[in-house]
């Protein structure tokens, strides 16, 4: 059975032209983790909704997190023993930095620096306004994740012009295969 894929958007959700949304159109079996309020994130509520979505999966899922939800995924890992099949962590927002992230993200501090027990990949842009590349490298190292430096593509969102981001989908497929080979 293929692993369930959970799409976990960040602050503001992912609009119709965001690669996460385009992936869902192309792969209707992917499940979006919905939040009550995408613009005023409540940490406890967001974490509970992610936990419920993971618990509802018939098998360990692969998380596809963007921005603020990379911190959310790390918080979930720090608090739960349930297995994940993999984690694709794209454009993590540096919630510890007032210079990089808006006040709405403060409830997600501090960023957990916990090793993921599944294969994980962090994808970071060299000119992301929400994190600098050395900090993204540090998150990847702490999380035990492979870092993919995507070059200058901003926040790796709809404004980055990635379309349905085939390179990201290839990373997702790689994560699924890695765990199959490991198991």
Total number of domains: 1
Query: Number of DSSP strands?
Result: 6
Please name the CATH architecture.
3-Layer(aba) Sandwich
Shape, per Cα inertia axes: globular
Strand content: 5-15%
The CATH topology annotation reads as Rossmann fold
CATH homology superfamily: Alpha/Beta hydrolase fold, catalytic domain
Structural class: alpha/beta
Euclidean distance between termini CA atoms: 13 Å
Number of helices: 5
Q: Supply Rg.
A: 15 Å
**Average of pLDDT:** 95
Helix % is 25-40%
CATH class equals Alpha Beta
The main β sheet shows up as: 6 strands, parallel
Nutshell version of this structure?
By secondary structure, this protein is α/β, with parallel strands linked by helices. Helix content is 33%, strand content 14%.
Please provide a written account of the structure:
This protein is α/β, with parallel strands linked by helices. It has one domain: 3-Layer(aba) Sandwich (Rossmann fold), CATH 3.40.50. It contains 5 helices and 6 strands. The protein has a 6-stranded parallel sheet, with helices on both faces. Helix 2 (43-55) packs across helix 3. The longest helix is centred in the last third of the chain and has 17 residues, at 166-182. The protein is globular.
Structure keywords:
6 strands, Rossmann fold, 183 residues, 5 helices, alpha/beta
List the helices and strands and how they pair.
Blueprint: E1 5-8, H1 19-26, E2 31-32, H2 43-55, E3 62-66, H3 68-79, E4 86-90, E5 120-124, H4 133-143, E6 146-149, H5 166-182
Parallel strand pairs: 1-2, 1-3, 3-4, 4-5, 5-6
